[in-house]
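Exercise: predict the structure of this protein bound to flavin-adenine dinucleotide.
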Amino acid sequence: MPRPDPLRIGVIGGGVGGLVAAIQLAAKGHAVDVFEQGERVGGKLNRTILDGSTFETGPTLVTMPFVLDEVFAAVGARRSDYFTLLPVDPACQYRWSDGSRLDLPFSHEDVITAIEQFSPGQGVRARAYLDHARSVYELTKDIFIFGEFNGLGEFFKRRNLPLLPSLLKLRPLSTLHDHNRSSFTDPRLVQLFDRFATYNGSSPFRAPATLMVIPWVEIGFGAWYPLGGMHAIADALERLAREVGVRIHLQTGVARIHVERGEASALELTDGARISVDHVISNADVSVTRRKLLGMASPLPKDPSCSGLVLQISTDSADKGLAQHNILFCDDYRAEFDAIDNGLYPHPDATIYISRSCAADASLASAGRENWFVLVNAPARGSGSHDGDATASVWTGHAEERAELVLRRMERFGLRPHVHAMNIRTPDTMASEWSTDRGSLYGASSNTPWSAFLRPRQRSREVKNLWYVGGSAHPGGGIPLVATSGMIASRLLLTASQSSL
Ligand SMILES: Cc1cc2nc3c(=O)[nH]c(=O)nc-3n(C[C@H](O)[C@H](O)[C@H](O)COP(=O)(O)OP(=O)(O)OC[C@H]3O[C@@H](n4cnc5c(N)ncnc54)[C@H](O)[C@@H]3O)c2cc1C
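Solution:
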């Protein structure tokens, strides 16, 4: 039998999802080209050098590390030969304005002990909460995360029938906040478990309680950090991609997907070059792909996941009792999310996240300095759009005064940094740098029980040989999920083309 010709596959974007799909397909012998408009691969998982230190631009923490292991193992490689993951212990330090503080350890059992010590009587509640969340994760993972997800029909597939009697366990009709309130009597712990809704840009006051799986995966599988900084993951994926034959074209934007008789035939690059393809994988936002690259009149998500204001601050190295990851909670969480929902920003009492990656790897900060990555949630609405079709941005000319509000809030915790150098990244930066819809970080939010059902799947409905990967597609945002989207897309593409060389 003659070997079939390799497929010509064009991947738009070198974020984690795009690289993972490219690796899987090139390893099967296909001709894969990745076109990345930025000067480095990684997308949101990227780095900035400032004042001699390295700063993250997006993710600061790895969860579900076994997903990355699988990406490498599927092509016969070993993740640990490419980068080292360190356990983060404590996983996170939480502070409240009343002076209370909880260091949440790395391991599940230690978490329960720490919660009991922090608030007597809550340890047993934490155990019950996490046991429940674990069972929801086990029940749903193959449908909502690792499978291709075909909507309601999934629940009636023979292999998923055992799930039907357990559906109520998922608590899809309660909000995460209501579930947390019925699980803990200490409001600080309610707030702590509420915060996990922000991991996919949602509000705990609107998102379904099913999102309880997020704290479970962080606590159950641990919080991890790569030696050398988060971008070590992108470097490793790039190395593996090149080893299996992927051609990576940096600073090469795609302007258009040409479609003939319902099939993508070519990619048009921003320099005018035309590349013929058998399949296209888009790692760009789904709504941006539809509107800008396909020229469709597709509506933008009505309820986008939130964006963020990031301050990259080079500060003195002085012991302030902080951990690597730290949360300074606001006093009225509902008011903070109401403000985000209404597109109002800044909220003067915002919850602040501080990541100090130098605590894990001292080489990331220059001598005598710490590299603080400070993040507050911000609404995507009101931000500038990647393609200029939104109203004027609320950020233009206001970034510095809003950064100052965040610094003032940090001052109330005794944590105002002495700033040697600072970069401010607003939702506009995110919209323009990564071509995301209004700077939203994960496409549509997960604020309703049916969000997962409406999230675009890997297979495009409009173009036969177009596949979506990345945070705006199924199963959603976050490194393990976008890597999973790349694995699913490559599997489906191979099946659809009945081609495994
Ligand atoms: C502030 C912040 C904090 C986060 N924290 C965490 C965390 O702690 N842990 C975690 O797991 N996740 C976190 N995330 C989420 C995680 O970073 C993302 O979900 C993930 O990295 C997105 O990967 P992706 O595959 O969707 O691709 P993206 O990162 O969105 O990359 C898409 C790429 O496509 C390129 N592109 C777009 N359009 C074109 C075009 N027309 N032509 C060429 N190239 C194009 C873009 O330049 C970009 O490089 C965070 C994100 C942010 C922003």
